[in-house]
Design brief:
- Two copies of one chain form a homodimer.
- Chain A contains five helices and five strands.
- By secondary structure, chain A is of the alpha+beta class.
- Chain A folds into two domains: 79 residues, Arc Repressor Mutant, subunit A; 43 residues, Ferric-uptake regulator, C-terminal dimerisarion domain (Dna Ligase, domain 1).
- Chain A has a three-stranded mixed sheet with strand order 4-3-5. In chain A, strands 1-2 form a two-stranded antiparallel sheet.
- At the A-B interface, helix 5 and strand 5 of A face helix 5 and strand 5 of B.
- Strand 5 of chain A pairs antiparallel with strand 5 of chain B.
- The structure holds a DNA duplex.
DNA sequence: TTAACTGCAAACATTTTGCAACCGT
DNA sequence: ACGGTTGCAAAATGTTTGCAGTTAA
């Protein structure tokens, strides 16, 4: 018997019906350290079960996201990308030269954000902070 | 002769060929104080010239954006929304109860962002900061 | 057993594009 | 006159959905 992935464990706790496809997708996502989009999840899942359907991947990542197991991002504006939801909040710094996503956390910024919202009479319930950068030095010699 | 809209003025300065459609779209965008999406720009432009095509609106906002005259946002993740680019940078605070977009500027956050990128060896070339909030008090009585 | 899930293909929404006609300079 | 621009409809892209068959519990 294979060990349960961290996402599958949470699915079980929530009483979700666990099919073979969901188990595979849960595993793929738990094993990912990057921020794959649906196509990437689909291709990784296909390596395990080649007859999984992309519609199932879409339905499943949505299900997981709605259950709070995944976070959905839309860096760049093309396809949505996913990562396992964890208790530790972080934002993202994207190296636009190679699409690499670096996670970071800055409490000073968090505090300022809450203050800004309050000044406008709003209670902060969410935010999106993405930084886009290029390797230092790369800008001097153009593209 | 009608006064040139601020966007049209910049188009002329850049030597763009100014057609009737472009003039109308420039005017619509200059006159907008909100952040319309392509459909909204299209419908406002249609009120002036009912036979303008949505493909032209798409082509034109892209042209303007690439010329640095417009800023493109994708709040929410549905369709892209546009606003006239101005010299004063700002970010957005969205009241999720009514979709209202409040602009704000916070230099402290800007400085911190640059610092974070540099710590990871990147030069900051852009960022996206959106805050989402609800009116203070609304959260106590649920939805 | 049976309600929920899957695969497939079709539908969808947004955006882009090929092409012939058109227009600004 | 000519090259860029437009309108139309078709294509492309990412995502959702209807339906008939399958499966977990």
């Amino acid at each position: 018997m294979t060990a349960l992935s961290s996402i599958e464990k949470l699915c079980v706790e929530r009483g979700m019906k666990m099919t073979g496809q969901r188990r595979i997708i849960a595993q793929v996502l738990s094993d990912s350290n990057d921020h794959p989009n649906v196509d990437e999840v689909y291709s990784r899942a296909s390596n395990i079960d080649s007859k999984i359907s992309i519609a199932t991947v879409y339905r499943t990542v949505r299900l997981f996201e709605e259950a709070g197991l995944l976070e959905k991002h839309d860096f760049g504006g093309n396809s949505a990308r996913y990562e396992e939801a964890t208790d530790d909040h972080h934002d993202h710094l994207i190296n636009v030269k190679n699409e690499e996503v670096i996670e970071f956390r800055n409490d000073e910024i968090e505090v300022l954000q809450r203050k800004i919202a309050e000044e406008k009479g709003l209670k902060l319930i969410g935010h999106r902070l993405e930084l886009y950068g290029i390797p230092i030095g790369d800008d001097e010699k153009g593209q």
